[in-house]
Amino acid sequence: MATLDADATLRAELYDRRMREMDRGDAKFYATLARDAEGPALELACGTGRIYLDALAEGCHVDGFDRSAEMLSFLRERAAERGLEPSVWQADMTDFAVAREYELAYCPFNAMQHLLTIEEQLDTLRNVYDALAPGGRFVFDVFVPSFELIAETYGEWRAEPVEFRGESREFRTRTRIADEVEQEFTVENELYDSDEKRVVTESHRLKMLPKREVELLARASPFEEWSVQGGFESDAAIEDGDPVQVWTLRKGE
Ligand SMILES: C[S@@+](CC[C@H](N)C(=O)[O-])C[C@H]1O[C@@H](n2cnc3c(N)ncnc32)[C@H](O)[C@@H]1O
Fold this sequence. Notes:
The chain is an alpha/beta fold.
């Protein structure tokens, strides 16, 4: 059992807390994919189990992993509360191997954007390809970088009240461009208690992934086919104005 870091545990708890109030429409989408798969499914970067636990509760044969022991610890707590038995482990997307073949692998909520280099991106796609059975699919979503949203909101702190450990606290978040050339940005999150004392600080560096860049990665990967839809609601081809790219990469039979 990994030793848990106290600050990372607080950050995982905050993530879990905030996610319970957010409905992106993706949990149903991925849980349905896992339910309809003709074999076991694997969730990459399953976090505190926002999607993983719903899929498990639907009776899906789903495994998961995440690189954060603290996120997984929360997932196990939530599973116990719901009487579920999770099959999850600690691993990194860029360097993982599996004990069985999967019909479906999926990676929700921009987690692929945590991969900052081409090597990390291609290593991950190769690992997923190797984990899939012939004909298997890899499904993931990343946001469409919106010039308007970036111009209007990046660099500004935004504050909102959040209920945390039974108390009302203030959550502050700011997204900033970190490197224009590499198209990287950072997301900083902070939590303040009622005395204005900062109790949680975190910062993540992520990569913008416009559609054409994902397509080039797919072309450079071992996957044989790929397609992208706009959002979780339909399987309509993506078009200008859609906020989310939902990619499916397919392994040949
Ligand atoms: C936005 S959360 C998504 C969690 C969950 N899938 C969800 O939708 O709520 C991103 C997750 O990616 C994990 N992560 C980031 N980089 C990773 C990597 N290289 N390998 C495995 N997990 C990673 C983080 O620990 C975090 O739990």
